[in-house]
Amino acid sequence: MASFLDTIDFRYGGTVMEGVAKQKAAKVRNPLEPLATFNWMVLCLLVIGFAGGVILTLFGSGSILGWGHSAYICVSTQGMSANTAGGPFDLHPHSGVGVGSTGLRLCADKPSAGQRWWYTLENLPGTVTAIVVVLITFLALRLAQRHGLYTPGIASRLRLLGWFLVADSVLRPTIEVYASHKLWATMADASMPTQWDPVWPFLFAGLALLSLARIMRVGSAMREDLEGVV
Question: Nearest Cα to 132, choosing from 177, 166, 180?
Answer without folding.
Answer: 166
